[in-house]
Amino acid sequence: MRRSTSLRHYEGVTTGAQIVVERLLARGVDVCFANPGTSEMHFVAALDGAPQMRPVLCLFEGVATGAADGYARIAGRPAATLLHLGPGLANGLANLHNARRAHTPVVNVVGDHATYHKNLDAPLESDIEALAAWTRGSVHRPASGADLATAVDEAVASATAGRVATLILPANLSWGPAELSGAPASAPLQPADTGELDLPAAEDLLRHHGDKVMLLLGGSATSAAGLQAAARITAATGARALVETFPAKVARGRGIPAIDRLAYLAEQAEQQLSGTTHLVLIGARSPVSFFAYPGKPSNLVPKDTEVHTLGIAKIYSLAAQFDVPEPQTTPVAPVFPSGPLNPQNWAEVIGALLPDDAIISDEANTSGVFLPAATAAAPPHDVLTLTGGAIGQGLPVAIGAAIAAPHRPVVALQADGSALYTISALWTMAREQLDITVVILNNHAYAILQLELHRVGAVAAGDRARSLLDLANPSIDFAAIAQGFGVPATHATTAEELAAQFRAALDEPGPHLIDAAVAQWSIG
Ligand SMILES: Cc1ncc(C[n+]2csc(CCOP(=O)(O)OP(=O)(O)O)c2C)c(N)n1
Ligand SMILES: [Mg+2]
User: Fold this and answer.
1) pLDDT tier at 19 (50, 70, 90 boundaries)?
2) What residues does 515 pair with on adjacent strands?
3) Strands 381-385 and 250-252, how do they pair?
4) How many Å lie between the centroid of ligand 1 and the Cα of residue 333?
5) Which atom of ligand 1 is least distant from the CA of 521?
6) Secondary structure of 328-342 in the HEC alphabet?
7) Within 422-472, where are the H helices?
8) Could you read off the pLDDT of 424-475 as tens digits, one per residue?
9) β-strands 436-442, 410-415 pairing
10) Which helix (H) or strand (E) holds 151?
11) Residue 422 Cβ contacting ligand 1 at under 6 Å
Protein backbone atom coordinates (compact mmCIF):
# COMPACT_ATOMS: atom_id res chain seq x y z
CA MET A 1 0.00 0.00 0.00
CA ARG A 2 1.15 3.53 -0.80
CA ARG A 3 2.45 5.36 2.25
CA SER A 4 1.34 8.90 2.92
CA THR A 5 4.17 11.40 2.90
CA SER A 6 2.06 14.10 4.46
CA LEU A 7 3.37 13.77 8.00
CA ARG A 8 6.09 16.27 8.59
CA HIS A 9 7.52 14.75 11.76
CA TYR A 10 7.66 11.17 10.60
CA GLU A 11 8.12 11.43 6.88
CA GLY A 12 8.80 8.06 5.33
CA VAL A 13 7.80 6.26 8.54
CA THR A 14 4.47 4.58 9.14
CA THR A 15 2.36 6.23 11.84
CA GLY A 16 0.10 4.35 14.22
CA ALA A 17 -2.92 5.88 12.51
CA GLN A 18 -1.74 4.50 9.16
CA ILE A 19 -1.41 1.04 10.71
CA VAL A 20 -4.97 1.27 12.01
CA VAL A 21 -6.37 2.40 8.64
CA GLU A 22 -4.45 -0.32 6.76
CA ARG A 23 -5.52 -3.00 9.20
CA LEU A 24 -9.17 -1.95 9.02
CA LEU A 25 -8.94 -2.25 5.24
CA ALA A 26 -7.22 -5.62 5.51
CA ARG A 27 -10.14 -6.82 7.65
CA GLY A 28 -12.69 -5.56 5.11
CA VAL A 29 -13.71 -2.29 6.79
CA ASP A 30 -13.56 0.29 4.02
CA VAL A 31 -16.11 2.97 4.96
CA CYS A 32 -15.59 5.40 7.82
CA PHE A 33 -18.39 7.67 9.03
CA ALA A 34 -16.45 10.47 10.68
CA ASN A 35 -16.71 13.50 12.87
CA PRO A 36 -13.11 14.15 13.85
CA GLY A 37 -11.34 16.59 16.15
CA THR A 38 -7.73 17.38 16.99
CA SER A 39 -6.96 13.99 18.58
CA GLU A 40 -8.04 12.29 15.34
CA MET A 41 -6.00 14.47 12.96
CA HIS A 42 -3.38 11.82 12.22
CA PHE A 43 -6.12 9.32 11.37
CA VAL A 44 -7.59 11.98 9.04
CA ALA A 45 -4.16 12.55 7.48
CA ALA A 46 -3.70 8.79 7.03
CA LEU A 47 -6.80 8.69 4.81
CA ASP A 48 -4.88 10.48 2.08
CA GLY A 49 -2.63 7.44 1.71
CA ALA A 50 -5.50 4.95 1.76
CA PRO A 51 -7.73 5.58 -1.25
CA GLN A 52 -9.64 2.33 -0.61
CA MET A 53 -11.09 3.77 2.59
CA ARG A 54 -14.13 5.96 1.94
CA PRO A 55 -14.37 8.79 4.50
CA VAL A 56 -17.88 10.22 4.98
CA LEU A 57 -18.20 13.41 7.00
CA CYS A 58 -21.20 13.46 9.37
CA LEU A 59 -22.08 16.70 11.15
CA PHE A 60 -23.21 15.11 14.43
CA GLU A 61 -21.89 11.91 15.94
CA GLY A 62 -25.38 10.43 16.19
CA VAL A 63 -25.49 10.66 12.40
CA ALA A 64 -22.17 8.82 12.11
CA THR A 65 -23.20 5.96 14.42
CA GLY A 66 -26.67 5.64 12.86
CA ALA A 67 -25.10 5.58 9.40
CA ALA A 68 -22.71 2.82 10.47
CA ASP A 69 -25.71 0.84 11.72
CA GLY A 70 -27.61 1.27 8.45
CA TYR A 71 -24.53 0.44 6.41
CA ALA A 72 -23.87 -2.84 8.18
CA ARG A 73 -27.52 -3.89 8.10
CA ILE A 74 -27.33 -3.75 4.32
CA ALA A 75 -23.68 -4.58 3.58
CA GLY A 76 -23.49 -7.39 6.13
CA ARG A 77 -20.11 -6.16 7.39
CA PRO A 78 -19.06 -3.38 9.70
CA ALA A 79 -18.22 0.18 8.86
CA ALA A 80 -16.00 2.25 11.12
CA THR A 81 -16.96 5.44 12.85
CA LEU A 82 -14.38 8.07 13.81
CA LEU A 83 -15.37 9.94 16.97
CA HIS A 84 -13.77 12.64 19.11
CA LEU A 85 -12.98 11.40 22.63
CA GLY A 86 -15.73 10.83 25.22
CA PRO A 87 -18.00 13.72 24.15
CA GLY A 88 -18.00 12.51 20.53
CA LEU A 89 -18.80 8.95 21.60
CA ALA A 90 -21.44 10.21 24.03
CA ASN A 91 -23.15 12.13 21.20
CA GLY A 92 -23.23 8.92 19.20
CA LEU A 93 -24.50 6.64 21.97
CA ALA A 94 -28.25 6.60 21.33
CA ASN A 95 -27.79 5.26 17.82
CA LEU A 96 -25.20 2.76 19.04
CA HIS A 97 -27.92 1.54 21.40
CA ASN A 98 -30.13 0.99 18.36
CA ALA A 99 -27.28 -0.80 16.61
CA ARG A 100 -26.81 -3.08 19.59
CA ARG A 101 -30.50 -3.98 19.63
CA ALA A 102 -30.20 -4.80 15.91
CA HIS A 103 -27.05 -6.94 16.55
CA THR A 104 -25.30 -4.70 14.05
CA PRO A 105 -21.52 -4.92 13.77
CA VAL A 106 -19.94 -1.49 14.28
CA VAL A 107 -16.28 -0.54 14.87
CA ASN A 108 -15.93 2.79 16.64
CA VAL A 109 -12.53 4.40 16.49
CA VAL A 110 -12.51 6.89 19.32
CA GLY A 111 -9.53 9.22 19.60
CA ASP A 112 -8.19 9.93 23.05
CA HIS A 113 -5.64 12.25 24.61
CA ALA A 114 -2.01 11.19 24.44
CA THR A 115 -1.37 8.75 27.29
CA TYR A 116 0.87 11.22 29.12
CA HIS A 117 -1.72 14.00 28.77
CA LYS A 118 -4.56 12.10 30.44
CA ASN A 119 -3.79 12.82 34.06
CA LEU A 120 -3.85 16.59 33.43
CA ASP A 121 -7.64 16.49 33.26
CA ALA A 122 -7.64 18.67 30.11
CA PRO A 123 -11.08 19.97 29.03
CA LEU A 124 -12.05 16.95 26.88
CA GLU A 125 -10.85 14.29 29.36
CA SER A 126 -13.58 11.80 30.34
CA ASP A 127 -14.21 8.10 31.02
CA ILE A 128 -14.40 6.68 27.50
CA GLU A 129 -14.39 3.08 28.73
CA ALA A 130 -17.53 3.69 30.78
CA LEU A 131 -19.35 5.13 27.76
CA ALA A 132 -18.22 2.31 25.49
CA ALA A 133 -19.20 -0.31 28.09
CA TRP A 134 -22.71 1.12 28.04
CA THR A 135 -23.15 -0.38 24.56
CA ARG A 136 -22.38 -3.81 26.13
CA GLY A 137 -19.92 -4.37 23.34
CA SER A 138 -16.18 -4.75 23.54
CA VAL A 139 -13.60 -2.09 24.38
CA HIS A 140 -10.07 -2.24 23.01
CA ARG A 141 -7.37 0.08 24.30
CA PRO A 142 -3.96 -0.76 22.80
CA ALA A 143 -1.23 -0.37 25.39
CA SER A 144 1.45 0.55 22.88
CA GLY A 145 1.99 1.12 19.18
CA ALA A 146 3.01 -2.53 18.87
CA ASP A 147 -0.50 -3.59 19.93
CA LEU A 148 -2.38 -1.51 17.35
CA ALA A 149 -2.78 -4.14 14.64
CA THR A 150 -3.94 -6.79 17.11
CA ALA A 151 -6.36 -4.34 18.70
CA VAL A 152 -7.90 -3.63 15.26
CA ASP A 153 -8.12 -7.37 14.53
CA GLU A 154 -9.85 -8.01 17.84
CA ALA A 155 -12.22 -5.09 17.44
CA VAL A 156 -13.27 -6.17 13.93
CA ALA A 157 -13.66 -9.79 15.05
CA SER A 158 -15.77 -8.74 17.99
CA ALA A 159 -17.94 -6.47 15.84
CA THR A 160 -18.38 -9.18 13.24
CA ALA A 161 -20.00 -11.32 15.93
CA GLY A 162 -22.80 -8.74 15.99
CA ARG A 163 -21.54 -6.23 18.53
CA VAL A 164 -20.45 -2.66 18.90
CA ALA A 165 -16.68 -2.69 19.27
CA THR A 166 -14.86 0.41 20.43
CA LEU A 167 -11.18 0.93 19.68
CA ILE A 168 -9.69 3.73 21.76
CA LEU A 169 -6.82 5.38 19.94
CA PRO A 170 -4.57 7.60 22.09
CA ALA A 171 -3.15 10.51 20.11
CA ASN A 172 0.49 9.59 20.74
CA LEU A 173 -0.05 6.06 19.45
CA SER A 174 -1.72 7.62 16.43
CA TRP A 175 1.21 9.87 15.66
CA GLY A 176 3.90 7.30 16.62
CA PRO A 177 6.23 5.64 16.13
CA ALA A 178 8.39 8.15 18.01
CA GLU A 179 6.30 7.62 21.14
CA LEU A 180 5.58 3.96 20.62
CA SER A 181 5.34 3.26 24.31
CA GLY A 182 1.83 4.10 25.41
CA ALA A 183 2.68 4.04 29.08
CA PRO A 184 1.08 6.77 31.12
CA ALA A 185 3.46 9.25 32.68
CA SER A 186 4.88 7.73 35.84
CA ALA A 187 5.26 10.99 37.76
CA PRO A 188 2.17 13.12 38.21
CA LEU A 189 2.23 15.92 35.66
CA GLN A 190 -0.02 18.22 37.63
CA PRO A 191 2.16 21.07 38.80
CA ALA A 192 3.00 20.89 42.47
CA ASP A 193 0.61 23.16 44.30
CA THR A 194 2.43 24.92 47.08
CA GLY A 195 -0.82 25.33 48.88
CA GLU A 196 -3.54 27.73 49.79
CA LEU A 197 -2.31 31.24 50.53
CA ASP A 198 -3.63 33.05 53.56
CA LEU A 199 -4.13 36.78 53.33
CA PRO A 200 -0.82 37.95 54.86
CA ALA A 201 1.13 35.49 52.69
CA ALA A 202 -0.69 36.64 49.55
CA GLU A 203 -0.03 40.28 50.37
CA ASP A 204 3.61 39.53 51.11
CA LEU A 205 4.00 37.65 47.83
CA LEU A 206 2.52 40.52 45.86
CA ARG A 207 4.51 43.21 47.64
CA HIS A 208 7.82 41.38 47.12
CA HIS A 209 7.42 39.62 43.80
CA GLY A 210 4.62 41.68 42.23
CA ASP A 211 5.96 41.79 38.69
CA LYS A 212 6.54 38.03 38.65
CA VAL A 213 3.07 37.11 39.88
CA MET A 214 0.24 36.02 37.61
CA LEU A 215 -3.30 35.84 38.96
CA LEU A 216 -5.41 33.31 37.04
CA LEU A 217 -9.10 33.97 37.56
CA GLY A 218 -11.95 31.50 37.19
CA GLY A 219 -15.28 30.59 38.80
CA SER A 220 -17.03 33.53 40.42
CA ALA A 221 -13.78 35.54 40.35
CA THR A 222 -14.71 36.47 36.77
CA SER A 223 -17.70 38.52 37.97
CA ALA A 224 -17.45 42.32 37.58
CA ALA A 225 -16.50 42.66 41.26
CA GLY A 226 -13.88 39.90 41.00
CA LEU A 227 -12.29 41.45 37.92
CA GLN A 228 -12.31 44.87 39.59
CA ALA A 229 -10.54 43.45 42.65
CA ALA A 230 -7.96 41.74 40.44
CA ALA A 231 -7.39 44.96 38.48
CA ARG A 232 -6.84 46.87 41.70
CA ILE A 233 -4.24 44.35 42.84
CA THR A 234 -2.41 44.38 39.52
CA ALA A 235 -2.40 48.21 39.35
CA ALA A 236 -0.92 48.44 42.83
CA THR A 237 1.68 45.68 42.62
CA GLY A 238 2.71 45.28 38.98
CA ALA A 239 1.35 41.72 39.02
CA ARG A 240 -0.50 40.50 35.94
CA ALA A 241 -3.88 38.80 35.68
CA LEU A 242 -5.58 36.54 33.17
CA VAL A 243 -9.02 34.94 33.01
CA GLU A 244 -9.05 31.16 32.43
CA THR A 245 -9.45 30.14 28.78
CA PHE A 246 -13.10 29.10 28.93
CA PRO A 247 -14.88 30.72 31.88
CA ALA A 248 -18.44 29.63 32.66
CA LYS A 249 -19.54 33.26 32.95
CA VAL A 250 -17.38 36.34 32.58
CA ALA A 251 -18.42 39.98 32.96
CA ARG A 252 -17.34 42.38 30.23
CA GLY A 253 -17.94 45.85 28.91
CA ARG A 254 -17.63 49.48 29.91
CA GLY A 255 -16.34 50.02 33.45
CA ILE A 256 -15.31 46.37 33.84
CA PRO A 257 -11.57 45.71 33.58
CA ALA A 258 -10.93 44.01 30.24
CA ILE A 259 -8.64 41.29 31.53
CA ASP A 260 -7.42 39.02 28.72
CA ARG A 261 -8.27 35.35 28.66
CA LEU A 262 -5.53 32.72 28.66
CA ALA A 263 -5.19 31.77 24.98
CA TYR A 264 -6.51 28.46 23.62
CA LEU A 265 -3.41 27.93 21.48
CA ALA A 266 -0.64 26.65 23.74
CA GLU A 267 2.01 28.68 21.89
CA GLN A 268 0.16 31.90 22.71
CA ALA A 269 -0.61 30.81 26.27
CA GLU A 270 3.09 30.11 26.85
CA GLN A 271 3.92 33.65 25.78
CA GLN A 272 1.27 35.11 28.07
CA LEU A 273 2.64 33.16 31.04
CA SER A 274 6.33 33.71 30.38
CA GLY A 275 8.15 35.65 33.08
CA THR A 276 5.85 34.27 35.79
CA THR A 277 7.51 32.75 38.86
CA HIS A 278 4.38 32.65 41.03
CA LEU A 279 1.06 31.59 39.61
CA VAL A 280 -1.91 32.26 41.88
CA LEU A 281 -5.02 30.26 41.01
CA ILE A 282 -8.18 32.06 42.09
CA GLY A 283 -11.13 29.83 41.21
CA ALA A 284 -9.20 28.52 38.17
CA ARG A 285 -7.40 25.27 37.44
CA SER A 286 -3.72 25.11 36.74
CA PRO A 287 -3.29 25.68 32.98
CA VAL A 288 -2.69 22.71 30.70
CA SER A 289 -2.84 22.59 26.92
CA PHE A 290 -6.15 21.44 25.43
CA PHE A 291 -4.43 18.57 23.61
CA ALA A 292 -0.97 17.07 23.55
CA TYR A 293 1.11 17.87 20.46
CA PRO A 294 4.22 15.99 19.32
CA GLY A 295 7.24 17.48 21.04
CA LYS A 296 5.33 20.22 22.87
CA PRO A 297 4.71 20.51 26.61
CA SER A 298 1.27 19.62 27.98
CA ASN A 299 1.68 21.51 31.21
CA LEU A 300 1.61 25.26 30.54
CA VAL A 301 3.02 26.34 33.90
CA PRO A 302 6.47 27.83 33.15
CA LYS A 303 9.43 25.92 34.56
CA ASP A 304 10.42 26.87 38.12
CA THR A 305 7.09 28.58 38.75
CA GLU A 306 5.44 28.08 42.11
CA VAL A 307 1.71 27.46 41.94
CA HIS A 308 -0.50 28.77 44.76
CA THR A 309 -4.22 28.90 45.30
CA LEU A 310 -6.21 31.71 46.83
CA GLY A 311 -9.84 31.31 47.92
CA ILE A 312 -12.08 33.44 45.74
CA ALA A 313 -13.55 35.33 48.69
CA LYS A 314 -10.06 36.44 49.73
CA ILE A 315 -9.49 38.44 46.55
CA TYR A 316 -11.76 41.20 47.88
CA SER A 317 -10.00 41.60 51.22
CA LEU A 318 -6.67 41.36 49.44
CA ALA A 319 -7.63 44.15 47.03
CA ALA A 320 -8.62 46.31 50.00
CA GLN A 321 -5.02 46.14 51.29
CA PHE A 322 -3.80 48.15 48.34
CA ASP A 323 -4.28 51.81 47.84
CA VAL A 324 -4.90 52.73 44.22
CA PRO A 325 -6.81 55.59 42.67
CA GLU A 326 -10.13 54.55 41.13
CA PRO A 327 -9.45 53.85 37.45
CA GLN A 328 -10.76 56.51 35.11
CA THR A 329 -12.58 55.15 32.11
CA THR A 330 -12.76 57.39 29.10
CA PRO A 331 -15.76 56.58 26.92
CA VAL A 332 -14.71 55.05 23.63
CA ALA A 333 -16.76 55.92 20.56
CA PRO A 334 -18.00 52.76 18.86
CA VAL A 335 -16.35 51.86 15.57
CA PHE A 336 -18.72 51.18 12.70
CA PRO A 337 -16.73 49.18 10.19
CA SER A 338 -17.61 48.58 6.57
CA GLY A 339 -16.93 46.15 3.76
CA PRO A 340 -17.05 42.36 3.35
CA LEU A 341 -17.30 40.50 6.66
CA ASN A 342 -14.08 39.27 8.23
CA PRO A 343 -13.22 37.99 11.73
CA GLN A 344 -12.56 41.53 12.96
CA ASN A 345 -15.33 43.69 11.52
CA TRP A 346 -18.27 41.43 12.45
CA ALA A 347 -17.10 41.57 16.08
CA GLU A 348 -16.84 45.37 15.91
CA VAL A 349 -20.45 45.55 14.69
CA ILE A 350 -21.59 43.51 17.71
CA GLY A 351 -19.44 45.61 20.05
CA ALA A 352 -20.93 48.83 18.70
CA LEU A 353 -24.55 47.68 18.87
CA LEU A 354 -24.71 45.37 21.87
CA PRO A 355 -27.67 46.37 24.04
CA ASP A 356 -27.48 47.02 27.80
CA ASP A 357 -27.25 44.03 30.11
CA ALA A 358 -27.03 41.50 27.28
CA ILE A 359 -25.99 37.88 27.66
CA ILE A 360 -23.65 36.56 24.99
CA SER A 361 -23.50 32.82 24.39
CA ASP A 362 -20.09 32.60 22.72
CA GLU A 363 -19.38 29.63 20.48
CA ALA A 364 -17.84 31.75 17.74
CA ASN A 365 -14.70 29.58 17.78
CA THR A 366 -12.03 30.82 15.36
CA SER A 367 -14.21 33.70 14.18
CA GLY A 368 -14.29 35.03 17.74
CA VAL A 369 -10.63 35.98 18.20
CA PHE A 370 -11.34 39.72 18.00
CA LEU A 371 -14.55 39.62 20.03
CA PRO A 372 -13.05 40.46 23.47
CA ALA A 373 -11.35 43.61 22.16
CA ALA A 374 -14.44 44.62 20.19
CA THR A 375 -16.78 44.31 23.20
CA ALA A 376 -14.54 45.82 25.89
CA ALA A 377 -16.28 49.20 25.60
CA ALA A 378 -19.80 47.87 24.98
CA PRO A 379 -22.44 48.20 27.70
CA PRO A 380 -21.80 45.80 30.61
CA HIS A 381 -22.81 42.24 29.76
CA ASP A 382 -22.10 38.60 30.61
CA VAL A 383 -20.38 36.09 28.34
CA LEU A 384 -21.01 32.34 28.59
CA THR A 385 -18.29 30.25 26.91
CA LEU A 386 -17.75 26.65 25.76
CA THR A 387 -16.27 25.14 28.91
CA GLY A 388 -15.58 21.49 28.12
CA GLY A 389 -14.64 21.50 24.46
CA ALA A 390 -17.71 19.47 23.44
CA ILE A 391 -19.08 21.61 20.63
CA GLY A 392 -22.78 22.25 20.06
CA GLN A 393 -23.21 24.11 23.33
CA GLY A 394 -23.92 27.66 22.13
CA LEU A 395 -27.53 27.48 20.91
CA PRO A 396 -28.85 25.31 23.79
CA VAL A 397 -27.10 27.52 26.37
CA ALA A 398 -28.72 30.58 24.78
CA ILE A 399 -32.15 28.98 25.26
CA GLY A 400 -31.47 28.36 28.93
CA ALA A 401 -30.15 31.88 29.48
CA ALA A 402 -33.18 33.45 27.77
CA ILE A 403 -35.58 31.46 29.92
CA ALA A 404 -33.61 32.25 33.08
CA ALA A 405 -33.45 35.98 32.31
CA PRO A 406 -36.49 36.84 30.18
CA HIS A 407 -35.82 40.58 30.37
CA ARG A 408 -32.23 40.42 29.17
CA PRO A 409 -31.38 40.31 25.46
CA VAL A 410 -29.53 37.13 24.54
CA VAL A 411 -27.08 37.09 21.65
CA ALA A 412 -25.75 33.75 20.41
CA LEU A 413 -22.50 34.19 18.48
CA GLN A 414 -22.30 30.83 16.84
CA ALA A 415 -19.82 29.15 14.50
CA ASP A 416 -21.41 27.20 11.63
CA GLY A 417 -20.00 23.71 12.27
CA SER A 418 -20.84 23.75 15.98
CA ALA A 419 -24.31 25.16 15.29
CA LEU A 420 -25.21 22.07 13.29
CA TYR A 421 -24.83 19.63 16.20
CA THR A 422 -27.79 21.16 17.99
CA ILE A 423 -29.46 23.15 15.22
CA SER A 424 -32.94 22.04 16.28
CA ALA A 425 -32.49 24.43 19.24
CA LEU A 426 -33.87 27.01 16.77
CA TRP A 427 -37.26 25.37 16.86
CA THR A 428 -37.42 25.65 20.66
CA MET A 429 -36.44 29.32 20.37
CA ALA A 430 -39.35 29.84 17.97
CA ARG A 431 -41.88 27.84 19.99
CA GLU A 432 -40.99 29.67 23.22
CA GLN A 433 -40.64 33.02 21.41
CA LEU A 434 -37.35 33.72 23.15
CA ASP A 435 -35.57 37.03 22.63
CA ILE A 436 -32.45 35.53 21.14
CA THR A 437 -30.47 36.95 18.24
CA VAL A 438 -28.37 34.24 16.67
CA VAL A 439 -25.47 35.34 14.48
CA ILE A 440 -24.05 32.39 12.56
CA LEU A 441 -20.37 32.96 11.79
CA ASN A 442 -20.50 31.02 8.59
CA ASN A 443 -16.94 30.36 7.38
CA HIS A 444 -18.03 27.18 5.58
CA ALA A 445 -15.48 25.07 7.41
CA TYR A 446 -14.28 23.30 10.50
CA ALA A 447 -11.63 26.03 10.37
CA ILE A 448 -9.99 25.19 13.69
CA LEU A 449 -9.36 21.63 12.51
CA GLN A 450 -7.72 22.87 9.32
CA LEU A 451 -5.35 24.71 11.63
CA GLU A 452 -4.99 21.68 13.92
CA LEU A 453 -4.10 19.45 10.99
CA HIS A 454 -1.03 21.63 10.58
CA ARG A 455 -0.34 21.93 14.31
CA VAL A 456 -0.18 18.17 14.85
CA GLY A 457 2.45 18.02 12.14
CA ALA A 458 0.31 16.79 9.27
CA VAL A 459 1.18 19.25 6.51
CA ALA A 460 0.12 19.32 2.89
CA ALA A 461 -2.97 17.26 3.61
CA GLY A 462 -4.61 15.96 0.48
CA ASP A 463 -8.18 16.27 -0.74
CA ARG A 464 -9.49 13.26 1.18
CA ALA A 465 -8.28 14.59 4.53
CA ARG A 466 -9.45 18.13 3.78
CA SER A 467 -12.88 16.89 2.72
CA LEU A 468 -13.52 15.98 6.37
CA LEU A 469 -12.97 19.60 7.41
CA ASP A 470 -14.81 21.43 4.65
CA LEU A 471 -18.44 22.54 4.88
CA ALA A 472 -18.64 24.33 1.53
CA ASN A 473 -19.70 21.44 -0.65
CA PRO A 474 -22.66 21.84 -0.64
CA SER A 475 -22.75 25.14 1.22
CA ILE A 476 -25.26 25.41 4.03
CA ASP A 477 -27.97 28.08 4.01
CA PHE A 478 -28.64 28.77 7.70
CA ALA A 479 -31.26 31.40 6.93
CA ALA A 480 -33.31 28.82 5.05
CA ILE A 481 -32.87 26.29 7.86
CA ALA A 482 -33.92 28.85 10.47
CA GLN A 483 -37.00 29.76 8.50
CA GLY A 484 -37.87 26.09 8.33
CA PHE A 485 -37.79 25.98 12.13
CA GLY A 486 -39.94 29.13 12.38
CA VAL A 487 -37.16 31.62 13.12
CA PRO A 488 -37.10 34.75 10.89
CA ALA A 489 -33.71 34.96 9.21
CA THR A 490 -31.53 37.00 6.86
CA HIS A 491 -28.15 36.81 5.11
CA ALA A 492 -25.36 39.33 5.70
CA THR A 493 -22.20 39.58 3.63
CA THR A 494 -20.96 43.05 4.64
CA ALA A 495 -20.49 44.85 7.94
CA GLU A 496 -23.17 47.37 6.91
CA GLU A 497 -25.71 44.59 6.28
CA LEU A 498 -24.86 42.89 9.55
CA ALA A 499 -25.32 46.16 11.46
CA ALA A 500 -28.72 46.86 9.90
CA GLN A 501 -29.94 43.30 10.44
CA PHE A 502 -28.59 43.08 14.01
CA ARG A 503 -30.36 46.34 14.94
CA ALA A 504 -33.62 45.13 13.42
CA ALA A 505 -33.39 41.74 15.13
CA LEU A 506 -32.87 43.34 18.53
CA ASP A 507 -35.77 45.74 18.01
CA GLU A 508 -38.28 43.02 17.29
CA PRO A 509 -39.38 40.50 19.95
CA GLY A 510 -38.74 36.78 19.48
CA PRO A 511 -35.79 34.92 17.97
CA HIS A 512 -33.93 35.95 14.82
CA LEU A 513 -31.02 34.48 12.93
CA ILE A 514 -28.44 36.23 10.78
CA ASP A 515 -26.41 33.99 8.50
CA ALA A 516 -23.17 36.02 8.31
CA ALA A 517 -20.68 34.98 5.62
CA VAL A 518 -17.38 35.57 7.41
CA ALA A 519 -14.00 35.01 5.81
CA GLN A 520 -11.87 32.42 7.58
CA TRP A 521 -9.44 33.58 10.23
CA SER A 522 -5.86 32.64 9.64
CA ILE A 523 -2.85 33.11 11.89
CA GLY A 524 -0.33 35.68 10.64
C1 LIG B 1 -18.77 16.76 20.51
C2 LIG B 1 -17.57 17.15 19.69
N3 LIG B 1 -17.39 16.56 18.48
C4 LIG B 1 -16.35 16.92 17.71
C5 LIG B 1 -15.45 17.85 18.14
C6 LIG B 1 -14.21 18.18 17.31
N7 LIG B 1 -14.24 19.56 16.81
C8 LIG B 1 -13.61 20.57 17.45
S9 LIG B 1 -13.78 22.03 16.68
C10 LIG B 1 -14.69 21.32 15.42
C11 LIG B 1 -15.17 22.14 14.26
C12 LIG B 1 -15.59 23.53 14.62
O13 LIG B 1 -16.06 24.18 13.47
P14 LIG B 1 -16.91 25.50 13.59
O15 LIG B 1 -17.86 25.38 14.72
O16 LIG B 1 -17.46 25.85 12.27
O17 LIG B 1 -15.83 26.58 14.06
P18 LIG B 1 -14.58 27.15 13.23
O19 LIG B 1 -13.44 26.26 13.59
O20 LIG B 1 -14.91 27.11 11.77
O21 LIG B 1 -14.40 28.54 13.74
C22 LIG B 1 -14.86 19.95 15.63
C23 LIG B 1 -15.61 19.05 14.75
C24 LIG B 1 -15.68 18.44 19.42
N25 LIG B 1 -14.87 19.37 19.93
N26 LIG B 1 -16.74 18.09 20.14
MG1 LIG C 1 -16.77 27.11 10.84
Assistant:
1) very high
2) 440, 491
3) antiparallel
4) 35
5) 21
6) CCCCCCCCCCCCECC
7) 425-431, 447-455, 463-467
8) 999 999 999 999 999 999 999 999 999 888 876 665 678 889 899 999 999 9
9) parallel
10) helix 148-160
11) no
